[in-house]
Design a protein that fits this description.
By secondary structure, the chain is of the alpha+beta class. Among the domains are: about 100 residues, Immunoglobulin-like (Sandwich); about 70 residues, SH3 Domains (SH3 type barrels, Roll); about 90 residues, SH3 Domains (SH3 type barrels, Roll), CATH 2.30.30.40. The protein is about 20% helix and about 20% strand. Strands 3, 4, 5, 7 and 8 form a five-stranded antiparallel β-sheet that branches.
Length: about 500
């Protein structure tokens, strides 16, 4: 590039010099043409009739003389300037060329302009109300890197509608897609029929590029979902009652007295078989988020815990459908909050679950004897910090101690995972606090340890009070005591029921 500029500059200077010479010569020729013609031969001219005019330089006749004579007649500074002008121009060109060459060597070769980034796009595949307070959204993206934040808005006639908890409307892109559930805020306005509702998904890249799409909200009419979404009293279709048939009068027939038949030996008497009750269908739902199984809705004691991914049997529900009585895979019967169950399963079978009080309750025994621990589980953990081995969780007496580095067998645990019954290397069985065990080992095998069926509530109180005393309030429970989070969801949407989440 520098050589091209040099050639152009030299050509321009040469053109200027050549142009100046041509202009000078043409002006000289024009001056020569303006001189008076010479006199004709034979005519007498009286040169004494007119005064002789002298030029400024003393030459008579007004002749200009040759080029050299004209140059010699110029003042000395002008002559020096004319002689030095070509050299100055050439030096100036050389300086420019050298400067361009040095600049090019310092900057190096110019980097190629990167091609423009492909435009991101987003496609909403599902935007459906799966429960009166939940909207399920699934979307796919292209040209959007993993980890990019995606935001979802609910629109009413094209305007933002503040119906959901903001924390439930944000998630991250993973594998070119995302899934989340918009959860209704308790103080949100109620949707109105006749309004057009849509879900809008937006992603913004670090480069400033943006992708956005809207999809009309699908509101199913089955299962009371539409009525619940619009805040109406559940208007499930009533069970059709067959019309009462009016009996047709029939003529009275007199019947003679019944003849009593005395059974005779050897003659069998046929008995009318008693019809067996029709078995009720088994209604099940998957666990969406792990949490507590309670003896009564929202109350104590905690009987067990459900784990995300498990399938439970739905027994009955409260009239407001907030609590469901379930039977866990460990045959524990108790109440769980509806947010712990898969919304799509509840929408499918929730209407068929009997209301509380319509089924005979199975009264639990007043006291449940402690079952002996299993002979062996094969589940082990290392001791992280030495401590006491107690006869009961958090209580006396102290039976033994475990030492850092030992390996113990995990026999069973409390429902909240705060205490583990172990068998140490000396064969002693007792309870240790989970903080004494290696947290990595508990994360790997803790979920597999069976829950102990302990009914003594005083023992549970000891365990909980000890748990509160030995750990500061800022202590974060380890991963094996937390539920596995679903993408785009969190405990923030529990609507005040976060005590029923295993956090």
């Amino acid at each position: 590039m520098g050589s091209n500029i040099t050639v152009v500059l030299i050509a321009v200077v040469a053109a200027v010099i050549v142009g100046a010479v041509i202009v000078f010569l043409r002006r000289r020729a024009a001056q020569d043409d303006s001189l008076p013609p010479p006199p004709k031969l034979g005519e007498l001219v009286d040169y004494t009739a007119e005064p002789v005019e002298d030029d400024d330089d003393g030459r008579s006749g007004g002749s200009f003389g040759s080029l050299s004579e004209q140059f010699a007649s110029l003042p000395l500074p002008v002559r020096v300037g004319l002689l030095a002008a070509p050299f100055l121009i050439i030096g100036f060109i050389v300086i420019i060329v050298v400067a361009i060459s040095i600049g090019a060597s310092m900057t190096g070769p110019s980097e190629p302009t990167p091609p423009p980034l492909p435009s991101p796009s987003i496609t909403i595949e599902k935007a459906t109300v799966v429960r009166a307070d939940t909207i399920h959204v699934i979307a796919r993206t292209t040209n959007v890197p993993n980890g990019t934040t995606a935001n979802v808005d609910l629109l009413a006639d094209g305007e933002p509608f503040p119906w959901y908890i903001p924390a439930s409307a944000t998630t991250t892109i993973t594998g070119g897609q995302f899934e989340l559930r918009l959860i209704k805020d308790l103080g949100a306005p109620m949707p109105q029929e006749g309004v057009s509702y849509a879900v809008q998904a937006t992603v913004v890249l670090a480069s400033g590029q943006q992708a956005q799409q809207q999809k009309a909200l699908e509101i199913p009419t089955v299962g009371g979902i539409r009525e619940g979404f619009f805040g109406k009293v559940s208007s499930r279709p009533p069970t059709p009652v067959p019309p009462t048939e009016v009996p047709t009068p029939t003529p009275t027939v007199e019947v003679s007295p019944t003849l009593e038949v005395t059974p005779t030996e050897g003659i069998p008497i046929l008995e009318t078989p008693t019809p067996e009750p029709t078995p009720q269908p088994v209604l099940t739902a998957r666990v969406f988020n792990g949490g507590n199984v309670r003896k009564v809705p929202g109350g104590e004691p905690i009987l067990d815990q459900v784990i995300a991914g498990e399938e439970v049997v739905l027994i009955q529900k409260t009239p407001d459908r907030v609590w469901y009585q379930v039977r866990t895979p460990r045959e524990t019967r108790g109440w769980v909050h509806y947010t712990l169950l898969e919304a799509e399963d509840l929408a499918r079978v929730g209407d068929q679950v009997p209301l509380e009080g319509t089924l005979p309750d199975e009264p639990p025994p007043e006291t449940m004897p402690d079952e002996p621990p299993p002979e062996t589980t094969g589940l082990t953990a290392r001791v992280f910090n030495g401590g006491n081995v107690r006869e009961v969780p958090g209580g006396e007496p102290v039976l033994d101690q475990v030492n850092a580095g030992e390996t113990v067998e995990l026999l069973q645990k409390l429902a909240d995972g705060s205490w583990y019954q172990i068998r140490n290397e000396r064969g002693n069985i007792g309870w240790v606090h989970f903080s004494l065990l290696d947290q990595e080992d508990l994360t790997n095998v803790g979920p597999q340890v069976p829950v102990a069926p302990i009914a003594n509530q005083e023992m549970m109180k000891h365990a909980h009070s000890f748990y509160a005393d030995v750990l500061p309030s800022s202590y974060q429970r380890p991963d094996h005591l937390r539920p596995a989070p679903r993408q785009g969801t969190g405990a923030a949407w529990a609507h005040g029921h976060d005590s029923d989440l295993a956090v």
